[in-house]
Amino acid sequence: MEVINALGRRKSAVARVYVTAGTGKITINKRDLTEYFPSAILQYVVKQPLETLEVADKYDISLNIFGGGFTGQSQAARLAIARALVKINADDKSALRKQGFMTRDSREVERKKPGRPKARRRFQFSKR
User: Fold this and answer.
1) Which residue ranges form the domains of the chain, and what is each CATH number?
2) Which residue, among 17, 20, 19, 39, has the nearest Cα to 28 in the 3D structure?
3) What's the pTM?
4) Tell me, what's the pLDDT at 1?
5) Above 80 in pLDDT, residue 118?
6) Whole-number pLDDT of residue 98
7) How confident is the model at residue 128 (pLDDT cuts 50, 70, 90)?
8) 8 A C-beta contact, residue 66 and residue 33
9) 84 Cβ partners below 8 Å, 6+ apart?
10) pLDDT of 68 over the 80 cut
11) In terms of CB atoms within 10 Å, which end of the chain has fewer, N or C?
């Protein structure tokens, strides 16, 4: 099997994934998954597409992630892995779509407006 690559984005995080046949090792930015994401919840998020298709021990996965925070990065990685698995076997797309792993979450941070403390927040009203 040749190297399969895919891209995933979430907020301002971008994840590039490279999938090869192997034993189930996940490497993120040349570090192990447990070292990069110490939180068990974030590790679970990254592994969700693999667990859904029960192929966690069939592929070695290498990820390059940059931008955003740890939550956005983990969700970008999930989307990238799901897209790569669909490139490998197109029949898996319906199972991944049913779980919501094929949809890019397009919500972004709203920009700050001039004359306001935040995007929508107003300064406190003072009658006197």
Assistant:
1) 4-99 (3.30.230.10)
2) 17
3) 0.91
4) 75
5) yes
6) 94
7) confident
8) no
9) 4, 5, 6, 17, 19, 61
10) yes
11) C
Residue 59 has pLDDT above 80, yes or no: yes
Edge-to-edge, what's the strand order for the sheet holding 4-10?
4-10, 13-21, 59-66, 26-28, 31-32
Q: Which tokens go with 108?
A: 């972004």
Rounded CA separation 12/69 (Å): 8
Residue 90: closest CA among 76, 107, 104, 102: 102
Local confidence band at 15 (pLDDT 50, 70, 90 cut-offs): very high
Q: Which residue has the tokens 């300064």?
A: 123
Q: Count of CB atoms within 10 A of residue 110's CB?
A: 9
Length of the chain: 128
d(CA 87, CA 70): 26
CA dist., res. 62 & res. 70, Å (int): 17
Angstrom distance (rounded) from CA 81 to CA 17: 6
